[in-house]
Design a protein that fits this description.
The complex is a heterotrimer of chains A (about 350), B (about 240) and C (about 350). Chain A has about 350 residues and is mainly alpha-helical. Chain A contains 16 helices and two strands. Chain A has one domain: ABC transporter involved in vitamin B12 uptake, BtuC, CATH 1.10.3470. In chain A, strands 1-2 form a two-stranded antiparallel ribbon. The two termini of chain A are about 20 Å apart. Chain B is α/β, with parallel strands linked by helices and about 240 residues long. In chain B, the strands form two sheets. Chain B has a six-stranded mixed β-sheet with strand order 6-7-8-3-9-10, with helices on both faces. In chain B, strands 2-1-4-5 form a four-stranded antiparallel β-sheet, covered by helices on one side. Chain C is mostly helical. Chain C has a single domain, classed as Orthogonal Bundle (ABC transporter involved in vitamin B12 uptake, BtuC). In chain C, a hairpin with a 2-residue loop joins strand 1 and strand 2. In chain C, helix 3 packs parallel to helix 7, helix 4 runs antiparallel to helix 5 and helix 4 crosses helix 11. Chain C is globular and about 55 Å long. In chain C, about 50% of the residues are buried. Classes of the chains: A mainly alpha (about 350), B alpha/beta (about 240), C mainly alpha (about 350). At the B-C interface, helix 2, helix 3 and helix 6 of B face helix 8 and helix 9 of C.
């Protein structure tokens, strides 16, 4: 926790930033993200679409990192929870005519409940077994959604109403950006609290955590449920932004994408994945659209990046930032990058 | 001199345990290293056996510096190591475990000779040759571990805590077997918590404390030394 | 002596594994009577090949502690290699028939696939896993798992990039008239491929049991320190294990080429099914992978027959999830300790 005596006399802005777990650089980044849709070449619709995709992946990376980076569980069926939330919301909207906004919330709650049930079953198992089980559960759910054609229209795809009555991508961009920030701040709050300490303890040393009186299963389930709830919410956004859902959404390859972004961004940092998603996704989309005669190249880069980071630099971008960039000699720059005012 | 350890510094990660440890063992000798818990006795053994790479220093075995060689190459040079927790292959039979001990020997006939030798020494193992190692009692496992260590016909046998966790009767048994080996000409370095016993059976001893060699001498002299008596024997 | 042996068999039949096997055989017979023996034939043919994939998976997990997610991609590499070896051979045979080559061409293709699979495995170990092992052993199972995830993505898309997405398959290996077994017509390819799978399993078992190298592999899986102490070169054994495991998967891919044409994601289904097998019998348990292969193949065949195609992911995954919940160490007990964290 950064709040110490030296910060007592610091200004109101600093205290607000500290409350929100942001550094001046982060605030500047957020402002930049808010104005970027007006700066060429980002002001074109397809670019804003990419930005929305990047923000969505970034928000997912935060929720994913919240489990893998803290309690050390790979939720290999992450997109199954996301898809479950999305389908719930879409089915409510299509069949009952419910507003997508309410649907998104209900979808999030449904995903959370599903996450809770899954957690109760899986999270007493060792990490790799829990990963397998979420993976198989995801597969089973994908199969179910494919076969329940009467409800989900199966592989034909479920059309669902959009959130805004406009063809512009801009309102969606601001919505997902706000969601990203809210998700970041709320997960950061949790990890800063005593509960966050317990998460970290479980992730690093199960034995030590247990002997100091932490009930690992309880904390794992809380963490997992929270992460799944966020996944469900973002699933609702996905459904009502892209307007069509197919069972493919629940596939493991989608989870791998988020996993790669979270790891490259920096495991356990929360912000790393969210930050790296923007340059990364946009580069990937550029590669995909400009080198369309070489299909799959962007995914090869994905996989290679994931492997390289895992082997040679497991801390990811966040560690790189903290060791090399965050503490320059210049006092003002240092304050800007790390938010620490010292003599 | 069969083994000469010169100024070894070793440890785990940043934690240094051994500081400037030096000692030596002659061909055919039966020597021991004694010392309190955490003095670095087992670490010394692991460093010689190549399971731990020393930070600095030399280990001269048969005129060759083996410091830093991986364990499998050390084993090939003729150092047998019987660890405290034995490291048996629990899902293999007794005979398979023994054959694994002779992994570095390629000739089949020689392997079978060694097997006969070990079976002669421990008839109990012969009777149980098809039993899984994991299902045996503590004493039998210890026997198997020693037998496996002998299969490669080592020039030097490192024995770590052979009495650990054994009933007194079985412990006597294990020490009798080590005596037989000594008579057969195997050089043995013993690490033992049971100081009385260790000083009884060996000829020379080293006392380790806090990762350093603190005293050395003939075992009989050490057994009479006031410091050793006070610290280890409580007299 | 015989009495005690029957006694052991009866005790085993009462264990979870015994009940499962007995029940599976009964169900298979009932289903065979109910809807025709082709169910049993299908189960046996796919089960044999599935066992090969699962055997490799179990071997790699048991010895190297790597939960392999990219194992299906070695299946894909195997089928791709077999395709590119067998197609030119078959064309050559069309123009100039040669009975000896006609009989051996499929074997050449499968052998080639095995070699390429083994080399691919060697490269993966050298370039990826040994690099990670040198740098950090902390949290190894999870990190190596994620590495294999990355590897899987790379290999699938490399196939797409280099060879395209279209199906690369063959109609038959040996061809010839189908043989009638218990009233079902079974193609000669299926029979020969099943025989091949059983031969490979048999050779593998003999290798692990009676050769010094095979024993060394088992020794490394049981106690690495102990293996080092007796003079085994661990890195060499790990390389060999990886090559062996991947070669097994590649053989399966090549053997089933006439049923599953090669395309980028062809490995996904064998991967899932092989994972079902290893979870069912217990992670790292190579001894029962064969049995597990048949059981999972039976579950799949029954699902397709009685519930319908498309459900064959749902039912097995749900069943496996149930196994994980109630018996996480697998039905046949496992050599891997510490399934539960608590």
């Amino acid at each position: 926790m950064k709040t110490n005596d030296s910060n007592m006399e610091s200004g109101l802005a600093d205290r607000i930033m500290d409350r929100l777990c942001l550094t001046p650089a982060a605030v500047a980044g957020i402002i930049l993200l808010f104005v970027i849709p007006f700066i060429p070449p980002f002001n074109q619709q397809y670019m804003i679409r990419w930005l929305v995709a990047a923000a969505l992946i970034g928000a997912n990376a935060i929720a994913f990192d919240f489990t893998i980076g803290f309690i050390n569980i790979v939720n290999f069926g992450y997109y199954a929870f996301l898809g479950f939330g999305g389908y719930t919301s879409a089915i409510l909207a299509v069949n009952l005519g419910l507003s997508p906004w309410i649907g998104m919330i209900i979808g999030a709650l449904f995903s959370g409940v599903l996450g809770l049930l899954t957690g109760l079953l899986t999270l007493r198992l060792r990490g790799i077994f829990a990963a397998c089980m979420t993976w198989f559960l995801g597969l089973a759910m994908m199969g179910l959604i494919t076969k329940m054609v009467w409800l989900t229209r199966g592989p034909l795809g479920l059309r669902c109403p959009q959130l805004f009555e406009t063809s512009s991508n801009l309102p969606y961009y601001y919505l997902i950006l706000s969601l990203l920030i809210v998700i970041y701040i709320s997960t950061k709050w949790v990890t800063r609290s005593n509960m966050g300490l317990a998460f970290k303890a479980i992730g690093q040393n199960m034995e030590a955590a247990r002997t100091s009186g932490i009930n690992p299963v309880f904390y794992r389930i809380v963490n997992f449920t929270l992460s799944c709830t966020i996944a469900g919410l973002l699933g609702g956004f996905y459904a009502h932004y892209y307007g069509v859902l197919t069972p493919e959404l629940l596939h493991t390859t989608k989870t791998v994408e988020v996993l790669a972004v979270a790891y490259i961004g920096g495991r356990g940092s929360l912000w790393g994945g969210a930050f790296i998603a923007f340059p990364f996704i946009i580069t990937m989309e550029l590669i995909r659209s400009s080198l369309s005669e070489l299909p799959g190249l962007n995914l090869i880069i994905y996989g290679l990046m994931l492997m390289l980071v895992m082997i040679y630099y497991p801390g990811g971008f966040a560690e790189f930032f903290n060791t090399y960039l965050a503490k320059p000699k210049n006092r003002f720059l240092r304050y800007f990058l790390s938010g620490i005012k010292d003599s | 001199m069969l083994l000469e350890v010169k100024n070894i510094n070793a440890g785990y990660g940043f934690l240094q345990i051994l500081r400037d440890v030096s000692f030596n063992i002659d061909q055919g000798e039966y020597a021991c290293v004694i010392g309190p818990n955490g003095a670095g006795k087992s670490t010394t053994m692991k460093t010689i056996a190549g399971l731990l790479s020393p930070m600095s220093g030399e280990i001269i075995f048969n005129g060759k510096n083996i410091a830093g060689l991986p364990g499998n190459q050390v084993a090939r040079l003729g150092i047998g190591y019987i660890s405290e927790d034995m490291n048996l292959f629990t899902n293999m039979t007794v005979q398979e475990n023994l054959y694994m001990g002779a992994y570095v020997i390629k000739e089949k006939a020689l392997k079978n000779d060694r097997l006969d030798f070990v079976y002669n020494l421990f008839t109990r193992l012969k009777n149980r040759k098809d039993q899984l190692a994991g299902t045996m009692s503590g004493g039998e496992r210890k026997m198997l571990a020693i037998g496996r260590g002998l299969m490669a016909n080592p020039k030097l046998l490192l024995v770590d805590e052979p009495s650990f966790g054994l009933a007194p009767q079985l412990m006597e048994n294990v020490f009798d077997n080590l005596d037989i080996l000594k008579e057969a000409g195997v050089t043995i370095l013993l690490v033992e918590q049971n100081v009385t016993k260790a000083l009884q059976v060996t000829t020379r001893g080293y006392v380790m404390e806090n990762g350093k060699i603190f005293m050395k001498g003939l075992s009989s002299d050490l057994a009479d030394d006031p410091h050793v008596r006070k610290v280890f024997l409580g007299v | 002596m015989t009495e005690s042996k029957t006694g052991t068999v009866i005790v085993w039949m009462k264990s979870a594994g015994g009940i499962t096997v007995t029940l599976s055989i009964l169900i298979a017979i009932i289903a065979g009577i109910d809807s025709g023996p082709y169910i049993i034939v299908n189960t046996i043919v796919t089960g044999g090949m599935l066992a090969l994939v699962a055997l490799g998976l179990a071997l790699i997990f048991g010895v190297m502690n790597i939960p392999m997610f990219a194992h299906g991609e070695f299946f894909m590499i195997g089928s791709l290699t077999a395709y590119y070896i067998f197609t030119p051979l078959a064309e050559y045979l069309n123009t100039s028939p040669n009975s000896l080559l006609a009989a051996t061409a499929p074997l050449i293709a499968i052998l080639g696939a095995m070699i390429v699979g083994a080399v691919a495995g060697l490269l993966c170990e050298l370039l990826i896993f040994s690099q990670l092992r040198k740098r950090s052993r902390e949290n190894w199972v999870m990190n190596s798992f994620l590495l294999t995830v990355g590897l899987s993505v790379v290999l699938i898309n490399a196939h797409q990039l280099l060879f395209g997405t279209e199906f690369k398959g063959i109609v038959r290996y040996w061809g010839g008239r189908p043989t009638e077994i218990m009233g079902a017509f079974v193609s000669r390819d299926r029979i020969l491929v099943f025989v091949l799978a059983m031969v490979v399993v048999g050779v593998f078992w003999l290798f692990m049991k009676y050769t010094s190298t095979g024993r060394a592999i088992r020794a490394v899986s049981q106690d690495q320190t102990g293996a080092l102490m007796v003079g085994i070169n661990i890195n060499g054994i790990l390389l060999l294990t990886m090559a062996l495991g991947c070669a097994l998967s590649a053989i399966a891919g090549a053997g089933l080429l006439f049923l599953y044409p090669s395309y980028p994601a062809v490995g996904l289904e064998p991967l899932y099914l092989a994972w079902f097998v290893v979870i069912l019998v217990g992670l790292g348990n190579t001894a029962f992978a064969l049995v597990g292969g048949f059981i999972v193949a039976l579950i799949k065949a029954l699902t397709v027959e009685y519930i319908g195609a498309g459900w064959d992911f749902v039912i097995p995954s749900l069943l496996i999830t149930v196994v994980l919940v109630f018996k996480p160490s697998g039905l046949f007990g496992s050599e891997v300790r510490g399934v539960l964290d608590l």
